[in-house]
Design a protein that fits this description.
Mean pLDDT: 92
Bound molecules: CU-O-CU linkage, copper (II) ion
Distance between the termini: 36 Å
Helix content: under 10%
Strand content: 35-45%
Strand order of the largest sheet: 15-14-11-17-22-19-20
Low-confidence stretches: none
């Protein structure tokens, strides 16, 4: 197990029970508690080696249904926690699977349709760090000091008068997404971590409901004010589904909701490094929409069924929040004293192969649309739990063309169960286009294995997906998965489709 800092670590294999509980009924705050047999760890960072087995149960102590989705892992439908099979209030469910995926930063979060945005925002999101030999080799090549490997979930929340505001989206929030005014890191505001001189390896998840992060680092502390504004260069090591073949030097990277990056930053000779989300134009062009409605996902739960979502909040502006694309301070690294020789970054960090050819024929086209009354839709169709948009043969290799409409918003589109590769982008908007590393329009963050990809307004993205499933009895028969926007207000707002692998 790597020495990880950022929170309390629990080994996935030691987990006996995952308790889902509400800790503050007024603000609606919730948390996961890992029972590892003899010890209970609140808000754990789970750690596993590739191949590890989980055999535990989920205990739902919420007054709402829930599910636990392992975002990024390849799991059979019965273990994916996607919301086909909710755990009613007070009930339990067996959780049993093997970790088949590459080393990388994955995460778990609740996913009951109609409750997802509220529950994730309330704290039901946790990290899962998967390691393997390549991952360990990288740590030793970087000669990481203890405390210099971090696993961080960044999310925004509304804080007023020193306390968190409850989740209460207005109609406007349901169109654009719920934005806060402060960043939480692993659940806490104003995060400061102490690291030693040398390389820092940081695995970061954007766990925000809707905010896009344009991650950059700046020299902090007043002594260095002459440097203020200059971004500190760093290296991109990996993306959602693990390490790149080789590190890529960057100065800023987009990390939209549910995306992850793995980076190395040299903090030698510095005293304080501030992580920020830089200001950018997020292109939220879609306006209006009357989205208040009782949610079909809530129909079966009587006291909740009558509530209309997207109507409870006061109109926007009543509580301060920063819109998408506003500059936002994320966290601070305080760097200890001393000197440490800095080993060079290895030229190769994994055996990841190149993606398929950008010109492979398209197997499937999907359009992201906006409807004034229905909100955001995939192929003009609002989500229905019992519907299948299409079926795919097991082991099929497909190229998906995903196109966003011109008057729209950035949509971080997520595929359950399968990592994919980005082949090409066209029509990309300014701030993202400026980061493109190749003539295919791909950004450095497009060069690894992805499970979530942001599609800008008027942009088309081509993805290569390999629908291979493990040879394992748990994966026998039809398996259903989802493709949806990970702006959680859009997801609960029906921007989701099911498909089956046969
Ligand atoms: Cu992270 Cu279907 O979600
Ligand atoms: Cu997922
Ligand atoms: Cu969206």
């Amino acid at each position: 197990m790597p020495a990880l800092s950022g929170g309390s670590v629990a080994a996935l294999g030691a987990l006996r029970r995952l308790i889902v509980e509400r800790t503050d009924p007024i603000l609606g705050r919730c948390r996961y508690v890992a029972d590892v047999g003899g010890e209970q760890i609140a808000r754990p960072i789970l750690v596993a080696r590739r191949g590890d087995r989980l055999d535990a149960s989920i205990e739902n102590r919420l007054p709402q249904p829930t599910t636990v989705h392992f975002h990024g892992l390849t799991l059979p439908e019965a273990q994916d926690g996607a919301g086909f099979d909710e755990i009613p209030p007070g009930a339990s469910k067996a959780l049993r699977f093997d970790v088949k995926n590459r080393a990388g930063l994955y995460w778990l979060h609740s996913h009951p349709h109609g409750f997802t945005a509220e529950q994730v925002h309330s704290g039901l999101a946790g990290l899962l760090v998967v390691t393997d030999d390549e991952d360990a080799a990288l740590d030793s090549a970087l000669s990481l000091s203890p405390g210099n490997r971090l696993a961080l979930a960044v999310a925004d929340a509304r804080i007023a008068g020193g306390s968190l505001r409850p989740y209460a989206p207005s109609q406007e929030d349901c169109v654009h997404g719920w934005f806060g005014n402060r960043a939480l890191v692993n659940g806490a505001p104003g995060a400061e971590m102490t690291v030693a001189q040398g390389w820092v390896r940081l695995q970061l998840l954007n766990a925000s409901n809707a905010r896009g992060v344009l991650l950059a680092f700046r020299e902090g502390g007043s002594e260095n004010s002459h440097d203020a504004g200059a971004n500190i260069p760093f290296y991109l090591l990996g993306t959602d589904g693990g390490l790149l073949a080789a590190p890529i030097p960057v100065e800023q990277v987009f990390v939209y909701s549910a995306e992850r990056v793995d980076i190395a930053i040299d903090v030698s000779g510095r005293r304080e490094v501030a992580a920020v989300s830089l200001a950018f134009d997020p292109r939220h062009q879609a306006r209006g929409g009357k989205l208040a409605h009782p949610h079909p996902g809530r129909e079966r739960y009587p006291p909740l069924a009558a509530e209309r979502i997207c109507a409870v909040g006061s109109e926007r502006g009543a509580v301060g929040f920063l819109p998408d694309g506003a500059e936002l301070a994320l966290f601070t690294l305080r760097v200890g004293p001393g000197q440490k020789p800095l080993p060079p970054l290895p030229a190769r960090i994994s055996t990841l192969a190149d993606a398929a050819a950008a010109t492979d024929p398209v197997s499937r086209r999907m359009r992201l649309d906006f409807d004034e009354r229905a909100g955001f839709l995939i192929d003009q169709t609002p989500y229905r739990a019992d519907e299948l948009a299409f079926s795919v043969g097991r082991g099929a290799r497909e190229v998906w063309e995903v196109r966003n409409s011109p008057i729209s918003m950035p949509h971080p589109m997520h595929l359950h169960g399968f990592g994919f590769r980005v082949l090409r982008r066209q029509g990309t908007f300014g701030p993202a286009r400026a980061l493109a590393a190749e003539s295919s329009g791909r950004l450095p963050t497009d060069l690894g294995v992805k499970d979530t990809v942001v599609v800008w307004p008027n942009e088309t993205v081509w993805l290569a997906v390999d629908f291979a499933l493990p040879e394992d009895t748990a994966f026998r028969g039809r398996q259903r998965y989802m493709f949806h926007c990970h702006n959680l207000e859009h997801e609960d707002g029906m921007m989701m489709r099911n498909f089956a692998v046969l």
